[in-house]
Design a protein that fits this description.
Aspartate Aminotransferase, domain 2; Aspartate Aminotransferase, domain 1; 7-stranded mixed β-sheet; 12 helices; globular
Length: 484
């Protein structure tokens, strides 16, 4: 094939013809990326959102290497800067080094997780690792699962299997059912559940919201009432979803109690542990996941608290064979093996990136003890953050934290409660504009709350001290405007 119109390093020559040129370009890009990451603390958590980026038209001719690298530099500079510890607003973790390099290696060999033939090593590794992860969560030796591109897809995969197992809809779909199937989830559960219900043909109204208590945990009594109500209306309850780590407050539903109710009513139990599943690595904290092993399926996102490069999520099943029995669509143009089912046949993905490599190398590189230490350190610093809040009577918590998410707000007694939302928005703006510290401003139960996620491995107590010193200074400086 004639490649003369293309850049010399458009592809890496498998015969080694452009090895030196490719090596030079790769080193230049890697040095640029490392410089960007190593200087993250010198930049604000968020770029100037008013900066306009002129991308221009689709290029007609190849751009020079200098132009190409300059474009990369501009995009890096305009990206969210979650690597600084001052970015404390969301569940954006730092990708560990092994996972970043693994992503590069996986892209380089470009195996396709559609089939065993197209990804012989990675397919076997994914099946092995999913079974090991399922055992770690207490699902047993017959468990299994698949890696997918995010927690929303993991929930979709789990609910699709639950629907097909409980309602026998693999072939004929939900149109064959006499009434609407119903899923029960907490009112503070993740919105991906409604999206999954929509995509599965159940409709968003199929997700019945169960009341949450003052600590953002599912109210067991209301769950029982909702199940009874659904049956009274001749609906078809088939699944209950518990959350281990709610998005806003990081709380955990009472898993053993929910399991008991699910069992009594023959419901599939899915646990959305996209965030909180990481606690399973910590001997000090895994007791909070008591009852997880009762689940029929689990969602877990290693790209959050395991610091694996995005995306890396898994859908695990107590009975691994349900993926073949209640979800599999054979791929007729791919070779089959008598002892291995092609992953692309039992996953929401067909073609897929080998995400298993970055998870596996992360586990090898950091180890279970390393992850336990990271989780425990997050708890230590979250407790220090809480101590600051508890010492200030004008600050209040949205719930009693169970993880490293802390949702709180300023509620000055000398100010009308109707003005608290605006006050907290001003605090968020002050922290970001004057101190380059980014806390989220979250709508929750009809009010606005500040949220901190203690996740960055380079977070120290002095940053937490600075946050509360800044809040104190803001409130003191604006004291003349507080009294009514």
């Amino acid at each position: 094939m004639d490649l003369t119109p293309l850049p010399e390093t458009a592809f890496i020559d498998p015969r080694g013809g452009n090895h030196l040129q490719a090596s030079r370009l790769a080193h230049e890009v890697m040095n640029m990326v490392l410089e960007h990451l190593s200087t993250a603390e010198q930049r604000p958590p968020l770029p100037d959102l008013m900066t306009r980026l002129d991308f221009g038209d689709l290029p007609e001719e190849p751009r020079s290497e200098m132009e190409w690298l300059d474009e990369l530099t501009k995009l890096l500079e305009a990206s969210m800067n979650a690597r600084t510890p001052r970015f404390i607003a969301h569940m954006n973790s730092l990708s560990n080094m092994a996972s970043m390099l693994a992503d590069l290696a996986a892209a380089a060999v470009d195996n396709n997780m559609l089939s065993l033939e197209m990804a012989p090593a990675f397919s076997r590794l994914e099946r092995h690792l999913m079974q090991k992860m399922a055992v770690l969560f207490g699902l047993g030796d017959s468990a299994g699962g698949v890696l997918v591109g995010g927690g929303s897809l993991a929930n979709l995969q789990a609910l699709a299997v639950a629907r097909n197992v409980k309602l026998n809809t693999l072939e004929n779909g939900v149109s064959s059912l006499p009434n609407q199937p119903i899923i029960f989830a907490s009112e503070v559960a993740h919105t991906s559940l409604q999206k999954a219900a929509m995509l599965l043909g159940l409709g968003t109204s199929a997700v019945w919201q169960v009341a949450a208590n003052e600590n953002s945990q599912m109210d067991i009594n209301d769950l029982q009432k909702q199940i009874a109500l659904a049956k009274d209306h001749e609906k078809i309850p088939f699944c209950v979803i518990a959350t281990a780590g709610t998005t806003v407050t990081g709380n955990i539903d009472p898993l053993p109690d929910i399991h008991e109710i699910a069992q009594q009513n023959e419901l599939w139990l899915h646990v959305d542990a996209a965030y909180g599943g990481a606690l399973i690595f910590s001997k000090n904290q895994k007791h909070r996941l008591r009852g997880m092993g009762y689940a029929d399926s689990i969602t877990f996102n290693p790209h959050k608290w395991l610091y694996v490069a995005r995306n890396c999520s898994m859908a695990l099943f107590r009975d691994g064979s349900v993926l073949k029995q209640a979800f599999r669509i054979p791929v007729p143009y791919m070779s089959v093996s008598s002892d291995f089912t092609n992953i692309g046949e039992i996953s929401v993905h067909g073609t897929n990136h080998a995400d298993v490599l970055k998870l596996w190398l992360s586990l090898l590189y950091i180890g279970r003890t390393g992850y336990a230490h990271l989780v425990n350190e997050c708890y230590r610093l979250a407790d220090y953050f809480l101590q600051h809040i508890r010492k200030r009577p004008d600050l209040e918590l949205a719930s009693e934290p169970e993880m490293n998410l802390i949702c709180f707000r300023a509620a000055p007694k000398s100010m009308l409660a109707q003005k608290w939302d605006e006050w907290n928005a001003e605090i968020q703006h002050h922290l970001l504009s004057q101190h380059q510290i980014f806390l989220a401003l979250i709508p929750y139960r009809g009010a606005k709350w500040l949220r901190a996620v203690i996740l960055n491995p380079f977070t120290e107590k002095d940053l937490i001290d600075r946050i509360f010193s800044a809040i104190d200074g803001f409130q003191k400086g604006r004291g003349a405007h507080v009294s009514e």
